[in-house]
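Good morning,

Attaching, inline, the backbone tokens for the sequence recovery test we're adding to the shared suite. The designed sequence is right after.
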């Protein structure tokens, strides 16, 4: 299947922020969302697989800055834009190498090139990918990763996630927001909070 070929070619670029499992987690949420919201899987699945491959082209000292409170927001945005641009380039190369149709390639590249910094959503397909990416933070994998990389306590971090979910995080689909609340409840139960 073509999705497996895309995954195989992307694998060496995946999870380059010491976040082994992120790409798989995002893909799982994207597939889940495809069962409940209208979107084209030929766009969503490759975009979910390839969305963060650009981090492989960003130096660790730079990508670590996005987790640091003392780094200015504009500097974090510059780093995020770089990973988006590099990911878009890699996506184009990988998709062409598997013979993907040009129209979906352009739509996939457009999603990747802005998935962390674009204010609005271009389509349902982008909504699924971005919601799946955000949902990964609420997964068991995502919480464990953030606790490790940020060196935080579960109590503090889960309260932080809850505050962000209630007051800041926006999801394209209400179904995604409901999944986030369920995942947060599951993490609270797991950590006995």
């Amino acid at each position: 299947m073509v999705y497996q070929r895309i995954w195989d070619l992307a694998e060496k670029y995946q999870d380059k922020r010491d976040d082994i499992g992120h790409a798989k987690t995002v893909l799982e949420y994207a597939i889940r969302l495809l069962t409940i919201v209208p979107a084209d899987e030929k766009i969503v699945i490759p975009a979910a697989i390839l969305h963060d491959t650009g981090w492989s082209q960003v130096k660790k000292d730079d990508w670590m800055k996005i987790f640091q409170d003392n780094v200015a927001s504009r500097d974090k945005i510059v780093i995020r834009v770089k990973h988006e641009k590099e990911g878009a380039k890699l996506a184009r190369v990988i998709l062409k190498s598997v013979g993907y149709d040009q129209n979906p390639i352009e739509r996939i590249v457009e999603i990747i090139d802005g998935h962390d910094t674009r204010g609005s959503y271009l389509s349902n397909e982008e909504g699924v990918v971005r919601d799946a990416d955000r949902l990964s933070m609420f997964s068991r994998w995502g919480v464990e990763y953030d606790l490790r990389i940020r060196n935080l306590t579960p109590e503090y971090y889960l309260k932080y996630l809850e505050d962000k979910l209630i007051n800041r995080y926006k999801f394209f689909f209400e179904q995604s927001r409901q999944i986030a609340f369920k995942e947060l409840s599951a993490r609270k139960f797991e950590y006995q909070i």
